Amino acid sequence: MAARPKRYAMVVDSKKCINCKACVVACRAENSVPLAYSRPWMNEETRGVWPKLMAAFAPEQCHQCDHPACVRVCPTGASHHRPDGIVVVNEAECVGCRYCMIACPYDARFFREDKGVVEKCDFCVHRLERGQLPACVETCPSKVRVFGDLNDPKSKLAELLSDRQYRVKKPEAGTGPQIYYLI
Ligand code: SF4
Ligand code: SF4
Fold this sequence. Notes:
This protein has a single domain (about 10-180), classed as Alpha-Beta Plaits (2-Layer Sandwich). It contains six helices and ten strands; from the N terminus they run E-H-E-E-H-E-E-H-E-E-H-H-E-H-E-E. The protein has helices at about 20-30, 70-75, 100-105, 125-130, 135-140, 155-160; strands spanning about 10, 40-50, 50-60, 80, 85-90, 110, 115-120, 145-150, 165, 180. A hairpin with a 4-residue loop joins strand 6 and strand 7 (about 115-120). It is globular and about 50 Å long. It is α+β, with helices and mostly antiparallel strands and about 180 residues long. Strands 8-1-10-9 form a four-stranded mixed sheet, covered by helices on one side. One iron/sulfur cluster binds near residues 62, 64, 69, 70 and 108.
């Protein structure tokens, strides 16, 4: 019997985040991203009413959408959606038009002036092919991110999502994001 196709996704528990940015640094090192750019980033906000205020941090990255707006507008096919759910950019086919940057509702892409191409998080596909986790997942000291296969009912990811205590961001954009935030 053929193996079931994988469908990669991620759960993020922002409450655990201590804003150390180890994920950002690890991603830069793993994917040779210069200091001026970043694939994952941190959303920082102040919540509450004075004097009871608290800082809240939420890691962000490409949401590996099921119906990616970036792929729809790409004129060359450089941006494409893999069968395992990961949205990737083939640098060799990217002409740097940046239509995908405008289309993405999550602002998850950036233009590499030095290479003339658009770049974003790809869940470290090269690491997945070696049986490793994405660099941000492996590095985080607070274990904020849980990465896994939605089609594997025994995965930690599936177990967390079955609790239904999660939400996706900007569902109204209609792109089917696959980063789930625990409430
Ligand atoms: Fe937050 Fe983990 Fe990133 Fe540190 S490594 S900033 S704890 S998500
Ligand atoms: Fe594309 Fe943006 Fe969705 Fe990532 S978050 S798949 S760049 S539309």
